[in-house]
Amino acid sequence: MSFFCFFDIMNKSQGRDSMKIKYNLLKTEKNTKARFGTIKTNYGTYETPMFMPVGTKATVKSLSKEELKAAHAGIILSNTYHLWLRPGPDVIAHCGGLHKFMSWDGPILTDSGGFQVFSLAKNKKKDITEEGVHFKSHIDGQNLFLTPEKSIEIQNKLDSDIAMSFDECPPASASYEYLKNSIERTIRWAKRGKAVHNNPNQALFGIVQGGAHEDLRKYSAEETVKLDFDGYSIGGVANDGESKEDMYKAIDYSIPYLPENKVRYLMGVGEPVDIIEGVIRGVDIFDCVLPTRIARHGQAFTRDGKINLNNAKYKEDLSPVEEGCDCYTCRNYSKAYIRHLITTGEMLGGRLLSIHNIRFLIKLTEELREAIKNDNILEYRKNFLERYEKK
Amino acid sequence: MSFFCFFDIMNKSQGRDSMKIKYNLLKTEKNTKARFGTIKTNYGTYETPMFMPVGTKATVKSLSKEELKAAHAGIILSNTYHLWLRPGPDVIAHCGGLHKFMSWDGPILTDSGGFQVFSLAKNKKKDITEEGVHFKSHIDGQNLFLTPEKSIEIQNKLDSDIAMSFDECPPASASYEYLKNSIERTIRWAKRGKAVHNNPNQALFGIVQGGAHEDLRKYSAEETVKLDFDGYSIGGVANDGESKEDMYKAIDYSIPYLPENKVRYLMGVGEPVDIIEGVIRGVDIFDCVLPTRIARHGQAFTRDGKINLNNAKYKEDLSPVEEGCDCYTCRNYSKAYIRHLITTGEMLGGRLLSIHNIRFLIKLTEELREAIKNDNILEYRKNFLERYEKK
């Protein structure tokens, strides 16, 4: 098997542009820290700010690659923890890496598995040691052990375009003292991961932690940047119970210490309002399961706030989910039909709303780019929020 | 609400060809009763023999209309019983009829609800009277009453292109005496339905019953044909426990009494072997939930028989579900990836296999048409079965 992995990765590096990602800052908005730029990847160049749809198990739930492209998706995200368990990194390497496995010819970012270890571990019991984390599989309860080296080794095999360092994701309730020790360990883990990283086509990002504490964020950012990663993410803002206020603080306290010429990634954030606030604070890329998860429950983003298609008032509503939306769903189907699909448990319902919700967030980032170019992002935020939060 | 119905149906009849379907027999195969022909519908002309995918609740499970068109689907089938319960015929009429409701610009056949009443009624308890059938909803147990008139009234509102007469669907175990009385009633029901049918764009088919009894089939066919329907279906072959032998007898005993210039429809049949046998016996159109149902359980039709993608042997299999298949799934994805989707419960798995399975059955009918044109359908059957049933 290891022969196949090596062989496939080598083959692949000849078939595509062999490079790590390159961020290019094109403009900073006049009144804020919002940035317009591009990320050059192995699979094309994409503008930022950008929203990355999440394909946990090598599939953005229910959608085809064509639907993702039609929604103007750029980078998509996949989860190392889930792919480690099923089908396993060796199977994916045998199939030529994650791109070939899932037939996606766009860029892919894989997370480190860290967040899932802390959020999905069976009964959330885990034993964190300096070496790594012992925990039980959420599928069958088997004992698992994930280390910084193991996480990177898996991601190397998955052959994603961007890998993430393995970090601890402490809950919002963690004490200052706990967070301080946790940051130190996460930095040591980042070093260990970087030391074993061994895929010439794959960028590696460091992760800044530190809760809502200014000094901890500064320390974490500075020490992580010293390790010279290809990009940086701000973690610990969407773990477990963080307030919006703490999220904005975490961004504000981290951004000043991150280099201008590297991508900044706010992990796990996908509420429209938070994307706008993140962009204004200098974040470039976002990911979240929200658009697909709420879709499966019948909810849709609209300019006038979130709506729930289960609501009886849509029973005979011939209008699209959102007037004027350019997505496939809104161009072809009525609320009445989608409500019927959702209330009768038909899969097409979640699929159609996923298409709309993903397109909604991507469209939002497209508009934010325009607002940055036009130096009117604060006005954009005001107008957006007035309408979105009206009801 | 009734104003809306009327208004929408009137509108629609101006927007499309206002006609009932027209069958055109082009060739009968030299050695068998197999027929090649066309059906002209309100939404285009299609060649027969034809397989009709089933969209029970106004959706062919998980698929988009574009995927159905890409699989070369012609007529699709939708279930009157399910749509009667949810969202209700008035909602669909308000939305401009079933085509507009589900955004399908191809022809639609609706069944009568008869089969569902007999197979889905809660606890399968039902009270059959001359007037109609009393039974309980499979969703919430509420008391329901379906009559021949009600079935046609619902189908008129749904505005499908082909409506079916309301019939009794007795089980295979029914006695000769029971069947005889049942046929008489079904003929009376057919008359009553025809008397109230009132949609100028909708064809109405009669249904031949009679189990595997030669005299009953003859009687049922002759009496039904006397009522002069736009097409005829052979029912009671896929209800509950019928053997293949009985199915073939039912066809053989019915076909001689059906007019040459009308479509012949074998209800609920979708096993490849049975489609071939049906075509050879003179059947034109087929429907079945099989291709989408087995897809959701990980099964796929191939030339070499049915395969189950849950099987561990496909874990690293880079080949498509079926070599040489022209469907979207086979052109884009490996067995290894689809197995991963199926075993991890990802919706895309069932969707991809549904696309393949529907295309498989449609491709089969395309090949049967060629075999009829070439007068070699018996050879085609021999070659198909040798390979399909080898393992």
Q: Name the strands of the widest sheet of chain A in spatial order.
A: 4-14-13-12-11-10-6-5
Which pair of protein chains has the largest interface, and what are the residue counts? A-B, 36 and 36 residues
CATH level 1 name of chain A:
Alpha Beta
CATH architecture of chain A: Alpha-Beta Barrel
Determine the number of helices of chain A (DSSP H or I, runs of at least 4 residues).
16
Low-confidence residue ranges of chain A: 1-15
Using the alpha-carbon principal axes, give the shape of chain A: globular
The helix/strand class of chain A is: alpha/beta
Which range does the strand content of chain A fall in? 15-25%
Q: Total domains of chain A, how many?
A: 1
End-to-end separation of chain A in angstroms reads 57 Å
- CATH topology of chain A, by name, is TIM Barrel
Number of strands of chain A: 16
Q: Give the full name of the CATH homologous superfamily of chain A.
A: Queuine tRNA-ribosyltransferase-like
Nearest-integer average pLDDT of chain A:
94
Query: What's the quaternary structure here?
Result: homodimer
Helix content of chain A: 40-55%
